[in-house]
Amino acid sequence: MPKTSPIFTDPFVPVVKIPLNMPDGSRASRSAIIVDPNGQNYEAGVVSEGYNLVSNEVVQDVALQVLNHAGVSYEDGGMIFDGKRYRQRWVIESLSIEARVGDLIRLTVDVFNSYDGSSLFGLAFNAQRLICLNGMMLDFLLGSFRFRHFGQNDFQRETEEAAASILALGTKLGPMAARIGHMTQTQINRESIQSTFKALKLPAGLQAEVFMAVEEDSLWGLYNAFTGVLTKTNTHRADGINRQVGRFLLAGRN
Fold it and tell me: Per residue, what are the HEC states of the chain?
């Protein structure tokens, strides 16, 4: 197996769960998850015998069922797949706020899945700034939904609960708008930017990119510089930093 993950452009390549054997030939209690067995043949992870493998194709189909059950209009917002973890985004047209006049932010529904056992199949609720398509990882504020019984008898109930969670997002628009409105009114300077970098313990290269991307002297401007750089990176790690930054800045710690 390759030591590093190959580049996957198709999240829906075949995936299989293969039982592992002990040195003496007996069956082990662990299994390997192999992505694209007839091509890249990439080992995404080793999991327990009871691990429930759900393919990304099934995950996307279920997420679309939930969106359609919720009755909302949506459009594709991009995806990430690194062989181990998958995230697909849909932008919800009817769930939006204005940070300022003409600066529209729409909520998103992100489906996530993993082949290495790092996360359960579920949905995360985030946001996207329309003017620049910057992604905002705000599920710590907007919530998420995990499918804990996929494939079992009560899965239909979970589908309905997931759809209800999407419809309930409308109640979170007001508090989100208030926090972002505060950011647009909070002025910053070079010292406060450096203080933010220090508090977040960010890599020097990322700090430099973000600093050069700041276009206005407000907390909102700094946040958009972060989300712009991280969205272009388009990795799961960038999403994690995006979430970390959002938690810090939206908490008003500056």
Answer: CCCCCCCCCCCCCCEEEEEEECCCCCEEEEEEEEECCCCCCEEEEEEECCCCCCCHHHHHHHHHHHHHHHCCCEEEEEEEECCCEEEEEEEEEEEEEEEECCEEEEEEEEEEEECCCCCCCEEEEEEEECCCCEEECCHHHHCEEECCCCCCCCHHHHHHHHHHHHHHHHHHHHHHHHHHHHHHHCECCHHHHHHHHHHHCCCHHHHHHHHHHCCCCEHHHHHHHHHHHHHHHCCHHHHHHHHHHHHHHHCCCC
Domain ranges of the chain: 56-171, 186-250
Q: What is the pTM of this model?
A: 0.91
Give the tens place of pLDDT for each residue, 34-51: 999 999 999 999 998 788
